[in-house]
Amino acid sequence: MKLFFDPSIFYLQRFGGISRYIIELNKNFSKNFNTKIIAPIYINNFLDDINSNKKICFLKINNYLRFTRKATIQFNKFFFELFCFIKRPDIVHLTYYDNYNYSKNIKTVITVHDLIHEKYSSEYNFKYRSFYKKNSIEKADKIICVSDNTKKDLLNFYKVDENKISVIHHGYPDSLETIKIQDEFLEKPFLLFVGDRNNYKNFKNFILAYSKSKMLKNDFNVVCFGGGEILDNEKKIFLDHNILDKIKIYYGDDKKLNYLFKKAAVYVCPSLYEGFGLTILEAMKFNCPIVSSNGGSLIEVGKDVIDYFDPKNIEDMIYKIETLAYDDERKQKMIKKYSNNLKNFDWKKTSYLTENLYKSLY
Protein backbone atom coordinates (compact mmCIF):
# COMPACT_ATOMS: atom_id res chain seq x y z
CA MET A 1 0.00 0.00 0.00
CA LYS A 2 1.36 3.38 -1.07
CA LEU A 3 0.65 6.42 1.14
CA PHE A 4 1.48 10.11 0.61
CA PHE A 5 1.34 13.02 3.05
CA ASP A 6 0.81 16.43 1.46
CA PRO A 7 3.07 19.50 2.03
CA SER A 8 0.61 21.92 3.68
CA ILE A 9 1.54 21.70 7.37
CA PHE A 10 5.27 21.62 6.66
CA TYR A 11 5.11 25.09 5.12
CA LEU A 12 2.86 26.41 7.91
CA GLN A 13 4.73 25.15 10.99
CA ARG A 14 8.39 25.30 11.91
CA PHE A 15 7.49 23.39 15.06
CA GLY A 16 4.01 22.34 16.16
CA GLY A 17 1.82 19.50 17.30
CA ILE A 18 0.35 18.61 13.90
CA SER A 19 3.67 18.33 12.08
CA ARG A 20 5.13 16.37 15.00
CA TYR A 21 2.17 13.98 14.78
CA ILE A 22 2.86 13.27 11.09
CA ILE A 23 6.57 12.75 11.77
CA GLU A 24 5.92 10.36 14.67
CA LEU A 25 3.50 8.31 12.55
CA ASN A 26 6.14 7.94 9.85
CA LYS A 27 8.83 6.99 12.33
CA ASN A 28 6.69 4.21 13.78
CA PHE A 29 4.91 2.71 10.78
CA SER A 30 5.84 -0.91 10.06
CA LYS A 31 8.83 -1.38 7.75
CA ASN A 32 6.77 -2.85 4.95
CA PHE A 33 4.48 0.16 4.82
CA ASN A 34 5.34 2.45 1.88
CA THR A 35 4.93 6.09 2.96
CA LYS A 36 6.28 9.42 1.73
CA ILE A 37 6.01 13.00 2.94
CA ILE A 38 5.89 15.31 -0.09
CA ALA A 39 7.12 18.77 0.95
CA PRO A 40 9.15 20.43 -1.84
CA ILE A 41 9.59 23.82 -0.11
CA TYR A 42 9.25 23.73 3.66
CA ILE A 43 10.12 25.49 6.93
CA ASN A 44 9.53 22.60 9.34
CA ASN A 45 12.40 21.47 11.58
CA PHE A 46 10.93 18.07 12.42
CA LEU A 47 11.38 16.96 8.79
CA ASP A 48 15.13 16.90 9.39
CA ASP A 49 14.59 13.83 11.63
CA ILE A 50 12.98 11.74 8.87
CA ASN A 51 14.97 9.35 6.67
CA SER A 52 15.50 10.64 3.14
CA ASN A 53 13.73 7.62 1.63
CA LYS A 54 10.53 8.67 3.43
CA LYS A 55 10.38 12.22 2.14
CA ILE A 56 10.70 14.32 -1.00
CA CYS A 57 12.02 17.74 -0.01
CA PHE A 58 13.98 20.22 -2.11
CA LEU A 59 14.41 23.49 -0.24
CA LYS A 60 14.22 24.39 3.44
CA ILE A 61 13.77 28.10 4.18
CA ASN A 62 14.06 29.92 7.49
CA ASN A 63 10.61 31.47 7.40
CA TYR A 64 7.71 32.42 5.17
CA LEU A 65 8.83 34.35 2.12
CA ARG A 66 6.60 37.38 2.53
CA PHE A 67 6.23 38.35 -1.13
CA THR A 68 6.29 34.84 -2.57
CA ARG A 69 4.22 32.93 0.03
CA LYS A 70 1.21 32.40 -2.24
CA ALA A 71 3.44 31.38 -5.15
CA THR A 72 5.28 28.88 -2.94
CA ILE A 73 2.04 27.35 -1.68
CA GLN A 74 0.83 27.03 -5.27
CA PHE A 75 4.11 25.43 -6.33
CA ASN A 76 3.86 22.88 -3.52
CA LYS A 77 0.26 22.18 -4.45
CA PHE A 78 1.10 21.77 -8.16
CA PHE A 79 4.04 19.47 -7.41
CA PHE A 80 1.99 17.32 -5.03
CA GLU A 81 -0.85 16.91 -7.50
CA LEU A 82 1.59 16.09 -10.30
CA PHE A 83 3.41 13.57 -8.12
CA CYS A 84 0.10 11.90 -7.24
CA PHE A 85 -0.78 11.73 -10.94
CA ILE A 86 2.54 10.09 -11.82
CA LYS A 87 3.03 7.78 -8.81
CA ARG A 88 -0.61 6.93 -8.09
CA PRO A 89 -0.70 6.46 -4.30
CA ASP A 90 -3.45 4.34 -2.78
CA ILE A 91 -4.09 6.86 0.00
CA VAL A 92 -3.44 10.54 0.66
CA HIS A 93 -3.38 11.53 4.33
CA LEU A 94 -3.97 15.28 4.43
CA THR A 95 -1.77 17.11 6.90
CA TYR A 96 -4.06 20.14 7.02
CA TYR A 97 -7.22 21.44 5.39
CA ASP A 98 -6.55 22.11 1.72
CA ASN A 99 -8.16 21.63 -1.66
CA TYR A 100 -6.12 19.23 -3.78
CA ASN A 101 -7.19 17.75 -7.10
CA TYR A 102 -6.14 14.15 -7.63
CA SER A 103 -7.74 10.97 -8.91
CA LYS A 104 -11.00 9.90 -7.29
CA ASN A 105 -9.51 6.42 -7.05
CA ILE A 106 -7.11 7.71 -4.40
CA LYS A 107 -8.61 7.41 -0.92
CA THR A 108 -8.36 10.39 1.43
CA VAL A 109 -7.77 10.37 5.19
CA ILE A 110 -7.70 13.47 7.37
CA THR A 111 -6.96 13.98 11.07
CA VAL A 112 -9.03 16.49 13.03
CA HIS A 113 -6.99 17.70 15.99
CA ASP A 114 -9.43 20.18 17.49
CA LEU A 115 -12.38 22.47 16.77
CA ILE A 116 -10.83 25.57 18.32
CA HIS A 117 -11.57 27.84 15.36
CA GLU A 118 -15.23 26.86 15.43
CA LYS A 119 -15.65 27.10 19.22
CA TYR A 120 -13.80 30.42 19.43
CA SER A 121 -14.68 31.85 16.02
CA SER A 122 -14.73 35.45 17.33
CA GLU A 123 -10.97 35.21 17.93
CA TYR A 124 -10.09 34.03 14.43
CA ASN A 125 -10.57 35.19 10.86
CA PHE A 126 -11.78 31.75 9.87
CA LYS A 127 -14.09 32.41 6.90
CA TYR A 128 -11.47 31.78 4.20
CA ARG A 129 -10.05 28.64 5.80
CA SER A 130 -13.48 27.30 6.88
CA PHE A 131 -14.37 26.49 3.26
CA TYR A 132 -11.29 24.31 2.89
CA LYS A 133 -11.85 22.66 6.27
CA LYS A 134 -15.49 21.83 5.50
CA ASN A 135 -14.56 20.58 2.04
CA SER A 136 -11.67 18.43 3.35
CA ILE A 137 -13.81 16.86 6.05
CA GLU A 138 -16.70 16.09 3.71
CA LYS A 139 -14.38 14.75 1.00
CA ALA A 140 -12.45 12.41 3.31
CA ASP A 141 -13.08 8.68 3.16
CA LYS A 142 -11.93 8.32 6.77
CA ILE A 143 -11.54 10.84 9.57
CA ILE A 144 -9.25 10.40 12.56
CA CYS A 145 -10.08 12.34 15.73
CA VAL A 146 -7.37 12.55 18.38
CA SER A 147 -9.80 12.32 21.28
CA ASP A 148 -13.41 11.40 22.05
CA ASN A 149 -13.99 15.03 22.95
CA THR A 150 -12.79 16.16 19.51
CA LYS A 151 -15.10 13.61 17.88
CA LYS A 152 -18.03 14.99 19.88
CA ASP A 153 -17.18 18.54 18.78
CA LEU A 154 -16.75 17.48 15.15
CA LEU A 155 -20.22 15.92 15.09
CA ASN A 156 -21.60 19.04 16.71
CA PHE A 157 -20.21 21.44 14.09
CA TYR A 158 -20.26 19.35 10.90
CA LYS A 159 -22.65 16.96 9.23
CA VAL A 160 -20.42 13.90 9.17
CA ASP A 161 -21.25 10.22 8.99
CA GLU A 162 -20.13 8.95 12.39
CA ASN A 163 -19.11 5.64 10.81
CA LYS A 164 -16.31 7.49 8.98
CA ILE A 165 -14.74 8.62 12.27
CA SER A 166 -12.14 6.74 14.31
CA VAL A 167 -10.66 8.01 17.58
CA ILE A 168 -6.91 7.38 17.76
CA HIS A 169 -5.00 9.07 20.56
CA HIS A 170 -1.58 10.63 20.13
CA GLY A 171 1.47 9.06 21.66
CA TYR A 172 3.92 10.99 23.80
CA PRO A 173 7.46 12.00 22.78
CA ASP A 174 9.88 9.55 24.37
CA SER A 175 13.05 11.63 24.13
CA LEU A 176 14.54 12.51 27.52
CA GLU A 177 17.18 14.85 26.09
CA THR A 178 17.50 18.21 27.80
CA ILE A 179 19.49 21.40 27.33
CA LYS A 180 20.18 23.30 30.52
CA ILE A 181 19.09 26.94 30.50
CA GLN A 182 21.64 29.00 32.36
CA ASP A 183 19.64 31.65 34.19
CA GLU A 184 19.46 32.65 37.87
CA PHE A 185 15.73 33.24 37.43
CA LEU A 186 15.26 29.47 37.28
CA GLU A 187 16.99 28.90 40.60
CA LYS A 188 13.81 29.90 42.44
CA PRO A 189 10.93 27.39 42.33
CA PHE A 190 8.56 28.17 39.46
CA LEU A 191 5.17 27.39 37.98
CA LEU A 192 5.37 26.47 34.30
CA PHE A 193 3.00 27.59 31.53
CA VAL A 194 3.52 26.28 27.97
CA GLY A 195 2.39 27.60 24.58
CA ASP A 196 0.22 30.40 23.24
CA ARG A 197 -1.34 32.85 25.66
CA ASN A 198 -4.44 33.80 23.65
CA ASN A 199 -7.95 33.77 25.08
CA TYR A 200 -8.89 30.10 25.03
CA LYS A 201 -5.54 29.22 26.63
CA ASN A 202 -6.84 31.13 29.67
CA PHE A 203 -3.46 32.64 30.55
CA LYS A 204 -5.07 35.79 31.96
CA ASN A 205 -7.06 33.85 34.58
CA PHE A 206 -3.94 31.91 35.51
CA ILE A 207 -2.02 35.15 36.07
CA LEU A 208 -4.89 36.64 38.07
CA ALA A 209 -4.93 33.51 40.25
CA TYR A 210 -1.18 33.73 40.76
CA SER A 211 -1.26 37.45 41.57
CA LYS A 212 -4.07 37.01 44.13
CA SER A 213 -2.18 34.34 46.05
CA LYS A 214 0.32 35.87 48.48
CA MET A 215 1.84 32.44 49.04
CA LEU A 216 2.43 31.71 45.36
CA LYS A 217 3.79 35.21 44.67
CA ASN A 218 6.23 34.97 47.55
CA ASP A 219 7.48 31.44 46.91
CA PHE A 220 7.29 30.91 43.14
CA ASN A 221 8.12 32.61 39.88
CA VAL A 222 6.17 32.00 36.67
CA VAL A 223 7.97 30.62 33.61
CA CYS A 224 6.32 30.66 30.18
CA PHE A 225 7.67 28.70 27.25
CA GLY A 226 6.90 29.82 23.70
CA GLY A 227 3.88 31.87 22.69
CA GLY A 228 5.65 34.99 21.45
CA GLU A 229 6.90 38.16 23.12
CA ILE A 230 5.03 39.79 25.99
CA LEU A 231 2.24 41.95 24.58
CA ASP A 232 1.47 45.47 25.85
CA ASN A 233 -1.83 44.40 27.43
CA GLU A 234 -0.06 41.52 29.20
CA LYS A 235 2.67 43.84 30.46
CA LYS A 236 0.00 46.18 31.85
CA ILE A 237 -1.56 43.31 33.79
CA PHE A 238 1.85 42.32 35.17
CA LEU A 239 2.57 45.92 36.19
CA ASP A 240 -0.88 46.45 37.70
CA HIS A 241 -0.40 43.39 39.89
CA ASN A 242 3.27 44.12 40.64
CA ILE A 243 4.53 40.83 39.20
CA LEU A 244 6.49 41.95 36.13
CA ASP A 245 9.79 40.84 37.67
CA LYS A 246 8.35 37.43 38.60
CA ILE A 247 7.45 36.31 35.05
CA LYS A 248 9.83 35.32 32.27
CA ILE A 249 9.36 33.82 28.80
CA TYR A 250 11.76 31.33 27.22
CA TYR A 251 11.95 29.99 23.67
CA GLY A 252 13.65 27.08 21.95
CA ASP A 253 13.28 23.46 20.95
CA ASP A 254 11.94 20.42 22.79
CA LYS A 255 15.21 19.91 24.65
CA LYS A 256 14.84 23.26 26.42
CA LEU A 257 11.18 22.60 27.15
CA ASN A 258 12.14 19.20 28.55
CA TYR A 259 14.56 20.92 30.91
CA LEU A 260 11.79 23.20 32.18
CA PHE A 261 9.40 20.28 32.71
CA LYS A 262 12.11 18.48 34.64
CA LYS A 263 12.81 21.49 36.86
CA ALA A 264 9.33 23.00 37.36
CA ALA A 265 7.65 22.81 40.76
CA VAL A 266 4.24 22.48 39.07
CA TYR A 267 3.03 22.51 35.47
CA VAL A 268 -0.20 24.49 35.20
CA CYS A 269 -2.45 23.92 32.15
CA PRO A 270 -5.37 26.38 32.48
CA SER A 271 -6.83 26.06 28.94
CA LEU A 272 -10.56 26.43 28.42
CA TYR A 273 -10.24 23.91 25.60
CA GLU A 274 -7.71 21.48 24.14
CA GLY A 275 -8.27 18.99 21.34
CA PHE A 276 -5.87 16.56 23.00
CA GLY A 277 -3.47 17.90 25.62
CA LEU A 278 -0.03 16.63 24.65
CA THR A 279 1.75 18.82 27.21
CA ILE A 280 0.09 16.81 29.99
CA LEU A 281 1.92 13.71 28.74
CA GLU A 282 5.16 15.64 28.25
CA ALA A 283 5.03 16.80 31.87
CA MET A 284 4.33 13.26 33.05
CA LYS A 285 7.35 12.00 31.14
CA PHE A 286 9.57 14.20 33.34
CA ASN A 287 7.72 13.49 36.61
CA CYS A 288 6.49 17.07 36.79
CA PRO A 289 3.48 17.58 39.12
CA ILE A 290 0.44 18.74 37.14
CA VAL A 291 -2.65 20.76 37.89
CA SER A 292 -4.95 21.30 34.93
CA SER A 293 -8.19 22.76 33.73
CA ASN A 294 -11.03 20.29 33.35
CA GLY A 295 -11.83 21.71 29.88
CA GLY A 296 -11.89 19.97 26.52
CA SER A 297 -10.08 16.64 26.35
CA LEU A 298 -7.69 17.28 29.25
CA ILE A 299 -9.45 14.88 31.63
CA GLU A 300 -9.41 12.28 28.84
CA VAL A 301 -5.60 12.51 28.80
CA GLY A 302 -4.86 13.15 32.49
CA LYS A 303 -7.59 10.76 33.71
CA ASP A 304 -7.73 10.44 37.52
CA VAL A 305 -3.96 10.82 37.81
CA ILE A 306 -3.62 14.62 38.06
CA ASP A 307 -5.46 17.48 39.82
CA TYR A 308 -8.09 19.62 38.06
CA PHE A 309 -9.73 23.01 38.54
CA ASP A 310 -12.60 24.95 36.99
CA PRO A 311 -10.76 27.24 34.51
CA LYS A 312 -13.32 30.04 34.95
CA ASN A 313 -13.16 29.99 38.74
CA ILE A 314 -10.15 31.97 40.00
CA GLU A 315 -10.57 30.87 43.60
CA ASP A 316 -10.72 27.20 42.63
CA MET A 317 -7.59 27.64 40.52
CA ILE A 318 -5.74 29.27 43.45
CA TYR A 319 -6.82 26.52 45.84
CA LYS A 320 -5.81 23.65 43.53
CA ILE A 321 -2.42 25.16 42.62
CA GLU A 322 -1.57 25.96 46.24
CA THR A 323 -2.72 22.52 47.43
CA LEU A 324 -0.39 20.73 45.01
CA ALA A 325 2.53 23.18 45.16
CA TYR A 326 2.98 22.83 48.92
CA ASP A 327 2.24 19.13 49.38
CA ASP A 328 5.28 16.97 48.55
CA GLU A 329 3.52 13.76 49.57
CA ARG A 330 0.65 14.52 47.19
CA LYS A 331 3.15 15.19 44.39
CA GLN A 332 4.87 11.86 44.92
CA LYS A 333 1.60 9.92 44.94
CA MET A 334 0.66 11.64 41.68
CA ILE A 335 4.00 10.92 40.03
CA LYS A 336 3.81 7.20 40.92
CA LYS A 337 0.69 6.93 38.72
CA TYR A 338 2.32 8.48 35.65
CA SER A 339 3.98 5.41 34.15
CA ASN A 340 0.75 3.40 33.94
CA ASN A 341 -1.08 6.31 32.33
CA LEU A 342 1.67 6.89 29.77
CA LYS A 343 1.30 3.29 28.58
CA ASN A 344 -2.06 4.29 27.10
CA PHE A 345 -0.41 6.85 24.80
CA ASP A 346 2.27 5.14 22.74
CA TRP A 347 3.28 6.20 19.21
CA LYS A 348 3.73 2.59 18.12
CA LYS A 349 0.14 1.91 19.13
CA THR A 350 -1.02 5.12 17.41
CA SER A 351 0.78 4.14 14.19
CA TYR A 352 -0.49 0.55 14.34
CA LEU A 353 -4.10 1.68 14.71
CA THR A 354 -3.62 4.22 11.92
CA GLU A 355 -2.22 1.54 9.60
CA ASN A 356 -5.26 -0.63 10.32
CA LEU A 357 -7.51 2.29 9.45
CA TYR A 358 -5.74 2.67 6.08
CA LYS A 359 -6.12 -1.04 5.41
CA SER A 360 -9.85 -0.87 6.14
CA LEU A 361 -10.26 1.33 3.03
CA TYR A 362 -9.39 -1.65 0.78
Q: Please, what is the oligomeric state?
A: single chain
Structural class: alpha/beta
Low-confidence stretches: none
Give the N-to-C terminal Cα separation: 10 Å
Strand neighbour order, sheet with most strands:
4-2-1-6-7-8-9
Query: What's the story with the biggest beta sheet?
Result: 7 strands, parallel
| Share in helix | 40-55%
Mean pLDDT: 94
CATH domain fold name of the largest domain? Rossmann fold
Residue share in β-strands: 15-25%
Number of helices: 16
CATH level-1 class of the largest domain: Alpha Beta
How many β strands by DSSP?
A: 15
CATH superfamily of the largest domain: Glycogen Phosphorylase B
Number of domains: 2
The 3D shape can be described as globular
CATH architecture of the largest domain: 3-Layer(aba) Sandwich
Radius of gyration: 21 Å
What do you see in this structure?
- The chain has a seven-stranded parallel sheet with strand order 4-2-1-6-7-8-9, with helices on both faces.
- The N and C termini lie close together (10 Å).
- The model has no long low-confidence stretch (mean pLDDT 94).
- It is globular and about 65 Å long.
- It has 16 helices and 15 strands.
- Strand 13, helix 11 and strand 14 form a beta-alpha-beta unit.
- Helices cover 41% and strands 16% of the residues.
- It folds into two domains: 2-171 and 346-359, Rossmann fold; 184-342, 3-Layer(aba) Sandwich (Rossmann fold).
Layout of strands and helices, then pairs:
Elements: E1 2-5, H1 8-12, H2 17-28, E2 34-38, E3 41-42, E4 55-56, E5 59-60, H3 69-87, E6 91-94, E7 107-112, H4 116-119, H5 127-139, E8 142-145, H6 148-157, E9 165-167, E10 190-194, H7 203-212, H8 214-219, E11 221-225, H9 232-240, E12 247-250, H10 254-263, E13 266-269, H11 278-285, E14 290-293, H12 298-302, E15 307-309, H13 314-325, H14 328-336, H15 338-342, H16 347-359
Parallel strand pairs: 1-2, 1-6, 2-4, 3-5, 6-7, 7-8, 8-9, 10-11, 10-13, 11-12, 13-14, 14-15
